[in-house]
Amino acid sequence: MSHEITVHADGRAEAAFALTPAWHGLGAVLDHPMSSREALEAAGLGWEVVQRPMAVGVPEPIKTPEGPVERVRYHDIPGMFANVRSDNGFVLGTVSEWYKIVQNTEAFAFLDGLIESHEMQYESAFSLSGGRKVVLLGRLPKVDEIAPGDETLRYVLLSLHHDGSGAIRFGPTSVRVVCANTYAMALGEGNLADVTTDQFSRDAAIRHMGDVGKKLEVAKRALVAANQTFDAHAEAGRALAKHRMTGAEWDAFLDIMCPTLDRRDPDWTDSRAKRLDETRAAIKAAYHNERQTLPGIEGTAWAAFNAVTEHIDHLPRRGATPERKAEARFNVCLYGAGRDMKKRAFETACRFAGLAL
Questions:
Q1: Cys staple from 16: which of 43, 113, 123, 196, with CB 3.0 to 4.6 Å?
Q2: What predicted TM-score, i.e. pTM, was given to this entire model?
């Protein structure tokens, strides 16, 4: 993806983070977890999305006493609108008449409403590509201790697509405090509501159609399932931390996650073999670093799982600018191939520990 943190001409970035600056160094950094009001103001996300009718200009020649001239006649496009920022007129995207706007303030209010105190603590809030996409990361109150000194925090991630390119995404993710590596929860069927249909699936997708407010209410029920998933994940983490890996098990785990390339493989190349060797070496190093050798988890299936997730989260990403690299890292960590590899590592570690999935 080519999305970037929105940066204005004066250098101000539409981003705010709690306690720790982001990878790209952009945006405001507050010295405490943010309330929705603080996050909204610090990130500069108080603007609204307004819809403007669309038209197409068609050149038409006309005759005048001075000779033929060309003018442009505009024709309305029925049922199509442009989503436009209220503050600067920036066109976010084109949508059909069925598209329902969910404002940034409504997204904050939705996340605030997920907990009884209505005081969600926000870790980050930012917009990408001029505001086409807005991302909020809110922290839930509970802290899960996997082993003494090794805790994970519970978060919910919500993203809006004001350009009409996607649904509102909502789902859980965790952060391991000792190294801040992030992983989307390894969710199975039946954990979170798909509020497009009121059915259950891996994460919630709210389409910008119909009664969006009602769908957001449906999504609140997903938090109950999300917390149950967090509970199950924490319990599994504790079980993984109790299973000590033998040398043979660690070698087998590494072979499953990153097999050595055989020269007889038709896809074998020097560069591919080198990349795989470097990946294996990096995961091995992570398995033996100070974060995976904490008392109570050293040499365990939990350490093996986190060696993989830490490697994924801290691997340098390609990009022409720091913003592009940061966006690539964000997407790899929480979506797509990175999430899938973390899920595979978790399931593999559970199998070694004899846990049923």
A1: 43
A2: 0.75
